[in-house]
Write a structure and sequence with these properties.
This protein has helices at residues 20-32, 43-50, 69-78, 93-105, 120-128, 152-157, 207-227, 240-243, 248-255, 271-276, 278-289, 307-310, 322-325, 332-347, 360-369, 385-394, 400-408, and strands spanning 12-16, 36-40, 57-61, 63-64, 67-68, 84-89, 109-110, 114-115, 161-170, 175-187, 191-193, 233-237, 265-270, 293-300, 317-320, 351-354, 373-374, 383-384. The chain is α/β, with parallel strands linked by helices and 410 residues long.
Amino acid sequence: MVAAGNTGGPPLAYVLDDETAVATMICKQLAMLGMEAWQFSDPIKFFTSLRVSRPKLVVLDLALGKSDAVEVIQRLDALKFAGKILLVSGRDERTLNEIENIGRSRGLLMLPSLQKPFRTADLKNRWLQQPELAPNVSKSVSPAPAKPLMDLAEAIRENWLEVWYQPKINLRSLTISGAEALIRARHPLHGLIAPVDLLPPVRDPLYRPLSSFVLRRTLEDWPLFAKQGYPLKLAINVPASVLGEPGFVDEVRRAIPYDAAFPGLIIEITEDEVIADPTGLGEVITQLRLYNTTISIDDFGSAHSSLGRVKDLPFTEIKLDRSFVSGCASDALKRGLCQTVVDLAHRFEASTCAEGIETIDDLRCLVGLGFDSGQGFLFAKPMPRNDFINSLLSQTFEPLPAIQARRAKG
């Protein structure tokens, strides 16, 4: 039997993947879910550690160099491992399902597998799911996973949704150039609900009415900002699956303000969705440009692709994932990656935005590397519309005034 591990602290998770960069990214995603994550590329070290600790979750890649997921599952069965197991791979779904069923037949607690790339929300949904065993395998009764505080369909029906705004900063002039619209919900009993506790799995049909709400509300808010002297370029998040649905382009066409001061709308789609079907999105993106709407590739770097995978798409911006931005001033590897993204994006005549800027040192580094824009808690957290307007009028987006003053002094 595997010895007990950390008790009383955050849940412990092991990540076994021979691609170090991928394992690191998964560990960061698990940490965002409140877990302590350890990564391994060598199955021998993995099992050595497993004998003295008891992780609640093992995230397991299929191919592991000189080993594979089937061998690992066989050894986990021999050790009577009692935690959950999540298979992740870029291979076909059939192979994932077959190996998943091997684990179930041995009585292991197998979660529904994930195909790479995936989002933190997908990982959370899997972690909260109740594992299934093969029909002929008995299992002890365990409590059902916690359910989200709010059902999205109910939130849409009851008008509990809100659009909040996070400022986007032009890193060349250190002025406010735009804002990203972010969804929130306010439950009458539970209060404010964050997206991670609200959004359904990828490709859920509810993303269509949700996207329509965000599009409509954001473009209804734009004249309020413009009236105060801030005709900002706003950005919304829309899944690629919704972008390609019949009628969505027409929704954009009808919602766009007919105002000479309107600088255009940015639609952000995540990198993992872009690389899944770059050809199918090209026509829609080109059509949207006719209506002053451009595309930003969000969370770039989190899906482990490259600009070469998306070079044929008419995108106008790349938002580098926060995991590469945070600490770039002190980490030479991150700094080099940031520079590479800037250079490549500019060759494609696209702008670059740095997500998750939290320190002055990182900001200085990003400015020096040539990033066009950025956003993060260093400037401001997302806020309700009226608070955002008040902040615009009072110029309270720190640390901009201090940085501008130092720059003016030379």
